[in-house]
Amino acid sequence: MEFELPEAIVIATVIGVENLPCDILGQKTLLSPDGENRTGNIKLPMNWLDEELACLSREALKDGKFRTASLANPEEPEQIVKVMLDPYLPCQELVILGGGHIARQLIQVGHLLGYKITVIDDRPDFAMNEYLTVHDRSICCSFSDLEKVVRLGPASSVVIVTRGHLHDMDCLRTVIKYPFAYLGMIGSRRKVALVKQTLAEEGVAQEKIDQVHMPIGLAIGAQTPAEIAVSIAAELISVRRAGETSSLKDTTPVKQGEICEMLTAADRETLDAALAAARDKTPAALATIIKSQGSTPRKSGARMLFYRDGRAYGTIGGGCAEAEVRRMALNVMDQDKPHIYRVSMTADIAAMEGMACGGMLEVFIEPVTTFYRAIEGCEN
C-alpha cells in the first residue's frame, strides 16, 4: 500500500475545540503550497476554517516554522478551533564543499543545529570524515561533478571551503544557479571583490551575487578553524531565524512570539517513523510540544514517538518530562484518542534536570492512527 506524503505540504491537526456541534479533536487535513488542495478527514462544512488554514499554511511553508493558532468563526465567535500546523519539508541539509580543517569543525557544529550533512572533496582522505554520522554523506568526486552527486534546492545550505581559489570559483558558479537557503564562500576581501567582478562579467544577476555570504561568517574575530566554524554556524542561525547580529549586551531585547524549533533531520525522521507505524498499523503515539514557557530543553514543534513495546524515537528533552509523557502516551494508545498533557517543572526539578530554572510544556499526544485516517480518508 502506498502511504507517503509529498514534500512541501502542511499537516494541520485540530488540537482543541470550543462550542462546536461535533468533536473533531485530532482530525487532520493536508494542505498544498497554494493552501487550496486538501485531503484529510476534517469533514465539517466550515468555509471560515478553510480560509484561515489556507492562509496559515502559506505562511508556514514560507518560513518553515511549526506554529499553533486559535481560529474563531467570524459569524459565531464562540466557536473556536485550535490547530497546530506542521510544515512537512525536505530536511535542512548542510553541504560542505571541501573537507579540510574548517569542515571538520563545522560538521560537529552542524550536528548540534540539526542539519543533515554532506561533505564533498576530490581527495579521498579528506572526503571521508570520522565526524560524520550514519545519516550524513561523504562523497569523493571532482567538484565539476557536483550537480551529478548532490541535489540542490531551497532546503540546501552550502558552504564553500575548498583548498583553492579555482575550486571555490567553480563550485560557486554551479551552486549560484540554484535556489538555496544559504550560500557562503570563504576568502579574503580582495578575493571576494575579484569573484564578484568575474561573476558580473559572466552575466550573473547582481541580486544573485548579493545573496552570497562572502567573506563567509559573522565578524566575531575568528582565527582558528574551530572559531571560523562557529562564525559560519552563527551566520547560518542568523539567516534561518532572520536574526540581528549585534552583541546582546548592546541591544535592547525585543519581545518575540512563541519560540519554536526549526525543523531538524531528527524531527523529520521522527515524523516519518510515525507515518511508517501508521502504515504498518504498529501501536504507537506521537507527542508534539505545542507550547513551552521558561527554561525547557526543547520548544514547540519538537516530537517524540512512543511505541507500545517500549521503544521510542526522537526526544522532547529527556528526563522526568519524557517519562511522564511516555506514561500518558500508553493511555492514548489504549483509548485511541488524542490528549493534551501539561508538564510543569518546579525550580528543584529543573535543577536536577540541569536547567537554570523551572519551565512548562504542553504536549499534544495522538495515536498514529490519526495519520492513517487522514491520508487514507477513513472515518472515525
Main attributes of the structure:
five-stranded antiparallel sheet, Rossmann fold, Xanthine and CO dehydrogenases maturation factor, alpha/beta, elongated, 380 residues, PreATP-grasp_dom_sf, 3 domains
What does this structure look like?
With 380 residues, the protein is an alpha/beta fold. It folds into three domains: 9-88; 93-241, Rossmann fold (3-Layer(aba) Sandwich), CATH 3.40.50.720; 265-376, no CATH class. The protein is 34% helix and 24% strand. α2 (101-112) packs across α8 (225-241) and α9 crosses α12 (369-376). The longest helix has 17 residues, at 47-63. The protein is elongated.
What percent of residues are in strands? 15-25%
The CATH top-level class label of the largest domain:
Alpha Beta
* Uncertain parts: 347-357
Distance between the termini: 20 Å
The beta-strand count equals 15
Short overview:
This protein has 380 residues and is an alpha/beta fold.
Q: What is the strand and helix layout of this fold?
A:
Blueprint: E1 9-18, E2 28-31, E3 38-40, H1 47-63, E4 67-72, E5 80-88, E6 93-97, H2 101-112, E7 116-121, H3 124-127, E8 137-140, H4 146-149, E9 156-160, H5 165-175, E10 182-185, H6 189-201, H7 206-210, H8 225-241, H9 265-280, E11 284-294, E12 303-307, E13 312-314, H10 319-335, E14 339-345, H11 347-352, E15 359-367, H12 369-376
Parallel strand pairs: 6-7, 6-9, 7-8, 9-10
Antiparallel strand pairs: 1-2, 1-5, 2-3, 4-5, 11-12, 11-15, 12-13, 14-15
